[in-house]
Amino acid sequence: MKIALVTGANRGLGLAAARRLAQDGAHVIIAARRPDAAADAAGRLSAEGLSASGVVIDVTDAATVRAAASEIEDRFGHLDVLVNNAGILPEAASGEQAEVIDLAMFRQTYATNVLGPVAVVEAFLPLIRRSPAGRIVNVSSTVGSLAHQTDPESPWHGMVVPAYQSSKAALNAITIVLAKALAGTPIKVTSVCPGWVQTDLAPGNREQAPTTPEDAAEVIARAATLDDAAPSGTFIDVDGAVAW
Ligand code: NAP
């Protein structure tokens, strides 16, 4: 049985992705900031007949990340799939900002969306290297694509959320460099855009977004189960390649 870890998996897209990976036959480890949230979500999946357990990870707190890696090493010895899903968009709820570039907003956003995945990959890579087919999935966004941000024809061209968009661009760059650094291994690294999804990421999302978390989880499952011949270091959504 494959062992999969999903960060921020207690709700939203993370929970849907965890459920989907478990439905595909994996034992899924629900990582959440609060122990009760991890246990509740894992309990829900177990009650559905799926194989799930919980672990505490706050991606901004490297000590919790390291402790989780040690716990998972003791229990499972390796990790097959890592989904870096935890992410935030505080700009969407911040109202009027004093200036378009806000250092505090960048610090907060990057701590979770950029340094979070870096901390998690650093701690878990030794366990992923023990898998015969390790897969790292970075949950990014087309709104972070530099190609889309600079293309007047893109539906996302008019969007300006500087900290969030640049954080996802940085995450995409991390996908590329990691894929290159791990080219001699079976590990594949993929950035995915789940679409605009009905979650609580931003006010109004639930009401306005067209995509359910269940449908959005499809692309995460795809990246998590890439076959051995598939390329590493790609950026995909449900329709295929996304321009970087
Ligand atoms: P969400 O409903 O707000 O869920 C975010 C999840 O991340 C929650 O489980 C939250 O945990 C967790 N989280 C936040 N900060 C964390 C931290 N420091 N450590 C660990 N977990 C943390 O949002 P979502 O839409 O499911 O977002 C999931 C991912 O999809 C994000 O990376 C987001 O950027 C990306 N995405 C979403 C959309 C969309 O339209 N929704 C589009 C493109 C990309 P708590 O419950 O403890 O807060």
How many helices? The count is 9
Instruction: Count every beta strand, where a strand is a DSSP E run of 2 or more residues.
Output: 8
SSE string: EHEHEHEHHEHHEHHEE
- The percent range for helix content is 40-55%
Q: What fraction of residues sit in β-strands?
A: 5-15%
Shape: globular
Strand order of the largest sheet: 3-2-1-4-5-6-7-8
List keywords for this structure.
globular; about 240 residues; alpha/beta; binds NADP nicotinamide-adenine-dinucleotide phosphate
Task: Summarize the structure in short.
By secondary structure, the chain is α/β, with parallel strands linked by helices. Helix content is 43%, strand content 14%.
Helices and strands, with pairings:
Layout (H helix, E strand, L loop, with lengths): L2 E4 L5 H12 L3 E6 L2 H13 L4 E5 L5 H15 L4 E4 L18 H11 L1 H14 L6 E5 L6 H4 L12 H20 L6 E5 L12 H4 L4 H12 L9 E4 L2 E2 L3
Parallel strand pairs: 1-2, 1-4, 2-3, 4-5, 5-6, 6-7
Antiparallel strand pairs: 7-8
Helix pairs in contact: 1-9, 3-5, 4-7
The protein binds NADP nicotinamide-adenine-dinucleotide phosphate.
